[in-house]
User: What shape does this take?
Amino acid sequence: MAVLTETPAPVLRAPASPRRRTKRVNRPSAWYLLPAVAFFGVFAAFPLVLVLYLSFTDWSGIGTPGFIGVDNWIRLFQNSAILDATWTTLLLTVLCWATQTPLSILLGVWSAGEQRNRAVLSSLFFLPLLLSTAAIALLYNRLFDPYVGIGRGIEMFRNILGSTSGALTAIVIVVGWQFIPFHTLLYQSAARNIPKSLYDAATVDGAGRWYSFWYVTLPQLKNTIVTSSTIMIVGSLTYFETIFLLTNGGPASSTRTLPLEMYFRSFKQFEFGFASAIASVLVIVATAISLVIVRFSGFAKMRSTLEGL
Amino acid sequence: VKTRPNYIAGALSAMWLVIVGVPLYVMVSWALQTRDSFLDRGPLAIPGSITFGNFAEVMDSGFMRYLVNTLIVTVACVALTLVVAIPAAYAIVRSLSWASGATFRVFLVGLAIPAQATIIPLYLIINRMQLYDSLTAVILPTVAFGLPLVVLVLVGALRDVSSELYDAMTVDGAGPFRILWQLVIPVSRGAIAAVGTYTALGAWNQFLFPLVLTQDPSMRVLSLSLTNYKQEFQINVPGMMMAVLLTALPVFVLYLVARRWLIAGLAGMGSK
Assistant: This one.
């Protein structure tokens, strides 16, 4: 590709002959799309179709998957472990949303202020974003360890990973620690885009700080709340690494969500067909949610939040 | 004009600073202590003396190998992503073909495909392609799952380019490839840097694909190596913390030198 380093043609020159000009095509052909489409097709879209097919097969991971009809799906709906995992997944999604959203809005609006100390502090707030999910999960796994962790100094954390409700709380804390900075970033740029005149008008009307926040800021953040919540919800349904490395589904199997259940059934118990049925459920739920986003909030809004950075 | 400082908000943000700060402090402080000192002094104490013994220990247990693997995966993912995504975004914005609109919609819906749900078919596909247990096996799906957001962000940037610029180049007699090289790439530098950073971060932190598509230690990447360090350093927790710290260090350095692109890239990353 480096061949094309010739100097650009001079801007002023006689127009090419009409015959040559009509032959010139200045628009790219559809072939420019092909490499990207092929990549996405083979390694992302095709697997989606394949996972649905695999959910109707019996496959141990080696050899050829054998078609067995709807057996996996019947088992799926009769299996109490799957029912528990679904419940855990939904509970986790609700808890994660309910803790992250208010905190992200408050921190985002606060850090959007122009004061110098806010700028310095908010750059510190974003530090968790620099760590990978795996690093964060293992850091907290050691931090919450009853023998070496902060539980030695702070009683409430002593055996947090040892009980069902504790382990679930731990996941909510870790996920919040990791993702609140990201959502704060979204709310920060959205809050900065709120026209100042709206606040001035509210102040003229005698509105205090609380009133301005409730009646000016929050309504103006509506689109961002939709975007951020959808990202949170789709994300929570599919958390894998955090739970895998923090609790490994335990204690017992109390924090096994659907993605973990899928992983254990396939790569540990070699029931790839049955696990594919679980994966299909995840795909269907995530696609349904994504269609709702595209339909109701529009991608244009998400793009503008990205551009604001 | 506000005169009264907002004490409640200040208190809340100070609290959040503690929540963010303590785990990071613990990570650094443990990593720089010997195991005995960390056990004696308690988890939150300031280290009495600093040691780099943990650093040496982590280095001795294959860290460089995993670092090189991770760098290969990261560089390959960024290069491949840009090579296929830039022409695609250009065609979506400028081509008159029906295929460009269809591709745009495919990537729009593709944004929400959960990678977790495709690991089983990917395992089958990668095995059939005889790529299992290679870095290529990690690179290919990582690129594919990054593409939707990358293409959409590039399309957004290219839509802002006025058509007069394209027309001017056409008058000059430039074909589509020269326009791509001399107009599209230069004007979308900012967006390219942002999506490049986003792709690099995604590849650097990739855990799931290496977990299910590789096996041999010679193909191990950093994020996956952390799980092995957890077992290896079961007793030497400070060693484990040093490993966690070292995997994050390159990103910290990037944060210092290229804060703007990194934040833009991170904004994209969280949306996956």
